Design the sequence.
């Protein structure tokens, strides 16, 4: 088939053209990514033989039973989800003033500066940021120094001895982890929120004022509901990123395990890939549920 | 600044508290990086004492003498380059296919391409590792590249598809009308227009790959990319400022392409 | 010399010389749908080589789709499109001997004017020296000889238009398609360009297919016009025929502005209820006591509105349930609300085909 005949064929059948274009990336994704993901999830239906520590490749639900029956495992899941929810709420609260200012009040050069300034930390090296917080939260580090000088030393100690929040030091406590998570995902909340706020037409606010609403009312009744899809979109990131992370709990973590760490450990030293796979399914299901909820709140239009 | 505030309508003026909160938030987001840079100069090498007891430059020299750092850097640069090339090719193909045509399953495909970034990295990492083992391979340079390319594809795809959608269909029709075949049209008309998007996407992909740790920990076996080296150092009590020096270098290497990519995309949007 | 082959009696030959007429483009029952809408619905037509052919219609009538079918950017769902007698359904746009002037000009921003114009030659492998020479000739033809080194972003709308024209013409196509090329230009420029286009077509002798929604443009430039509405040809004829003998109510209303009179008034005046058209400018106003001239019919009504246009005034008159537009010359100034008498000759009435107007 010579070139013109091929050209004519592709012309009459544009779908063929499309297929040829998409074939390489689809092949790659199909084999490398989807294939390995399915292979992993498949393993969650196997179990590990307790005596030989080898994987028994017969389909069974035993691993899932093990996952859900042991209270320690349930603790892990609950701990991770709680942290994800808290981080999401905190991110939303902190992101709001920044995003609101950026989208509604800043103009010209200040606005551009804000956008670049929010984007830069998002793209700065993940490890460098985690490491930076390790420095900051360390036993004789900046936070400690500030607290001492402000006379808050006692308060800090009290905080650290609270179970569920504290830990041996700030750099290995739930509070520390919480702060780092919030810091890391903040840009992911700010940007969709700012984008959603930008899309609120000024004419709506003017109409509301024209009809007699005060600034506070406008904010609560007009701006906030319209910004909700942006918050939902940002929360998808903060929730799922926290749920799956295993490095931050390792570096800045309290003794308690998180899902990510559990998965890492099970597939590594313990060699229990089925359990690791089963643990991986949990965040997938949770994220899928969260995505469905977020979609209802309009997150997908704001992405 | 004052004139800008005066032009803003009275119901829309930001309160002082609002403005303070915004700038404070911004400062919060940036001060850790300054801390890192500061600690690269401290003389104290065992703890993270603040304020630093003294300042010195000798850690930079020490870091430059470490062969393991250079080896890790070389590996990272190599992996990032290969992953960028691969994702540029595959991402562009995907964008060309999905940019304009609608067909059943198109939305599903878009979701598929985003999955590697949307799902927790640990999943991608473990999935790839078990696939590698199943295939009987050993983790190597190419397994690292494969992992990185998989989520760099969506970065390139996003950039290219956004640019393609702003390309008027009439230009490509005009080119065909004037006698250019498909490949000619792509080479002479589409590619020059895509250049900035490809550059931006490529640079972002490079930065992403260079910085990647979560998936790389699984696909690297015994090899050390710079982030892996870094991660190992996090738990070592000695020579901490060297880690800081490397951190400063990493920031410099990744910030520059990102800022460039941002300005390329902005300039593109403004003129396009 | 072969004998003339008539293409019906509607092809207007201006110079009277014996010509061999070949069909440049033919549509045979062509249908093209987008989803549930039929953009082009069973259209058959035949365009002669060397003709200035216009496709006229409101937006959504399918005229641009027809153009795209000729150029090859769309394929028909049913029927055939033939270029020079050959079915082109498997011929991609770049292999068709057709060039298009796009509505948005579609100049390539990353090439200068000369490179834009030479593009078609470049992709066909013409050597650089010949390319440049022919491109400069084309630019001279559209009176932009000095503009070769400029960039598209530096050009005005009219200049871009002409560069697009040069770019299409430099390839010496058999057919030139123009998709509402003058839409974005102001009135003066538009009129200038109309004259230039017409003279260009006459000089080059190639087939022009011109798509527009402006009936004045179509009438002034074309040898024949196809009037399209909702994917169908309402009438295909020379401009004079379209204007004076509209076939359907749609054509009567769209081309020039006719009154379409049906129902009771038609029955009283003509004896049958079938609608007829009468041009506003053929209607005269009778003084209150004047006799009805021979061969005329009359109706009386109330004057609703007057628009003064200098040489004539445009009246809106309520006559037996219809509003009739009239442009009576030398009519005495009449008051809005007064009773007026309108009359027109039998010959001005054109019977319309019963259509779904």
Sequence:
């Amino acid at each position: 088939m010579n070139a013109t005949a091929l050209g004519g064929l592709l012309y009459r059948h544009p779908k063929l053209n499309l297929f040829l274009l998409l074939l390489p990336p689809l092949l790659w994704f199909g084999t490398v990514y989807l294939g390995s993901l399915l292979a992993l999830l498949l393993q969650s239906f196997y179990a590990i033989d307790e005596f030989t520590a080898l994987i028994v490749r017969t389909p069974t639900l035993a691993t899932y039973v093990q996952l859900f029956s042991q209270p320690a495992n349930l603790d892990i899941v609950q701990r991770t989800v709680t942290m994800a929810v808290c981080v999401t709420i905190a991110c939303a609260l902190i992101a709001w003033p920044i995003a609101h200012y950026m989208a509604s009040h800043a103009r010209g050069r200040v606005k551009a500066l804000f956008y670049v300034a929010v984007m830069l930390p998002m793209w700065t090296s993940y490890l460098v940021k985690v490491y930076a917080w390790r420095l900051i939260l360390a036993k004789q580090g900046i936070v400690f120094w500030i607290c001492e000088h402000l006379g808050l030393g006692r308060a800090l100690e009290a905080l650290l001895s609270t179970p569920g929040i504290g830990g041996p030091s700030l750099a290995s406590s739930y509070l520390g982890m919480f702060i780092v998570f919030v810091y890391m995902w903040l840009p992911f909340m700010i940007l969709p929120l700012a984008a959603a706020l930008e899309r609120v037409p000024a004419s709506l606010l003017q109409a509301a004022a024209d009809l007699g609403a005060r600034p506070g009312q406008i904010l609560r009744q007009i701006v906030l509901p319209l910004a909700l899809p942006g918050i939902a979109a940002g929360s998808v990131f903060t929730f799922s990123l926290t749920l799956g992370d295993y490095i931050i709990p390792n570096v800045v973590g309290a003794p308690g395990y998180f899902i990510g760490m559990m998965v890492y450990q099970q597939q590594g030293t313990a060699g229990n890939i089925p359990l690791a796979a089963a643990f991986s399914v949990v965040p997938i299901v949770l994220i899928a549920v969260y995505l469905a909820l977020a979609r209802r709140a309009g997150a997908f239009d704001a992405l | 600044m004052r004139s800008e505030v005066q032009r803003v309508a009275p119901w829309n003026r930001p309160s002082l508290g609002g403005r303070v909160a915004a700038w404070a938030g911004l400062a919060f987001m940036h001060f850790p990086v300054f801390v890192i840079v500061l600690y690269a100069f401290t003389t104290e090498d065992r703890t993270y004492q603040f304020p630093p007891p003294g300042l010195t430059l000798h850690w930079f020299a020490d870091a430059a003498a470490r062969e393991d750092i250079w080896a890790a850097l070389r590996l990272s640069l190599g992996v990032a380059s290969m992953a960028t090339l691969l994702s540029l090719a595959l991402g562009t193909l995907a964008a060309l296919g999905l940019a304009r045509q609608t067909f059943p399953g198109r939305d599903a495909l878009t979701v598929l391409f985003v999955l590697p970034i949307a799902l927790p990295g640990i999943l991608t990492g473990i999935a790839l590792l078990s696939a590698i083992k199943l295939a009987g391979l050993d983790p190597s340079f190419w397994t690292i590249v494969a992992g990185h390319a998989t989520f760099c594809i969506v970065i390139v795809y996003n950039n290219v598809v956004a640019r393609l959608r702003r390309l008027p269909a009439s230009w490509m029709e005009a080119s065909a009308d004037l006698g250019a075949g498909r490949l000619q049209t792509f080479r002479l008309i589409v590619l020059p227009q895509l250049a900035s998007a490809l550059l931006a996407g490529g640079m972002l992909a490079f930065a992403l790959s260079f910085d990647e740790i979560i998936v790389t920990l699984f696909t690297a076996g015994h090899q050390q990319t710079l982030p892996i080296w870094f991660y190992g150092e996090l738990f070592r009590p000695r020579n901490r400022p060297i880690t800081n020096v490397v951190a400063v270098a990493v920031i410099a290497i990744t910030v520059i392409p990102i800022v460039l990519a941002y300005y390329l995309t902005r300039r593109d949007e403004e003129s396009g | 010399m072969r004998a003339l082959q008539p293409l019906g009696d509607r092809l207007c030959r201006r110079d009277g010389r014996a010509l061999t007429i070949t069909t440049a483009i033919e549509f045979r029952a062509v249908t093209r749908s987008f989803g549930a809408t039929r953009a082009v619905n069973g259209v058959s037509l035949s365009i002669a080589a060397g003709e200035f052919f216009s496709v006229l219609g409101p937006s959504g009538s399918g005229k641009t789709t027809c153009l795209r079918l000729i150029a090859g950017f769309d394929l028909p769902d049913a029927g055939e499109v033939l270029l020079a007698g050959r079915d082109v359904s498997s011929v991609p746009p770049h292999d068709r001997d057709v060039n298009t002037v796009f509505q948005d000009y579609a100049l390539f921003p990353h090439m200068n004017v000369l490179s834009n114009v030479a593009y078609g030659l470049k992709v066909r492998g013409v050597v650089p020296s010949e390319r440049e020479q022919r491109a400069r000739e084309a630019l001279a033809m559209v009176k932009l000889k000095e503009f070769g080194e400029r960039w598209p972003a530096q050009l005005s709308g009219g200049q871009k238009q002409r560069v697009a024209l040069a770019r299409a013409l430099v390839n010496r196509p058999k057919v030139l398609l123009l998709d509402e090329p003058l839409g974005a230009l102001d009135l003066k420029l538009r009129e200038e360009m109309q004259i230039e286009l017409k003279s260009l077509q006459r000089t080059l002798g190639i087939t022009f297919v011109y798509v527009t929604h402006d009936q004045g443009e179509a009438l002034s430039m074309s040898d024949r016009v196809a009037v399209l509405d909702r994917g169908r040809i309402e009438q295909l004829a020379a401009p004079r025929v379209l204007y004076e003998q509209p076939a359907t109510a749609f054509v009567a209303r769209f081309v020039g502005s006719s009154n379409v009179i049906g129902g009771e008034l038609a029955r009283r005046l003509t004896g049958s209820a079938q609608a007829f058209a009468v041009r506003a400018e053929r209607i005269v106003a009778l003084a209150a006591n004047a006799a009805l001239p021979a061969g005329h019919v009359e109706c009386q009504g109330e004057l609703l509105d007057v628009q003064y246009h200098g040489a004539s005034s445009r009246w809106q008159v309520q006559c037996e349930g219809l509003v009739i537009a009239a442009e009576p010359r030398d009519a005495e100034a009449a008051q809005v609300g007064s009773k007026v008498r309108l009359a027109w000759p039998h010959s001005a009435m054109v019977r319309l085909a019963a259509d779904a107007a």
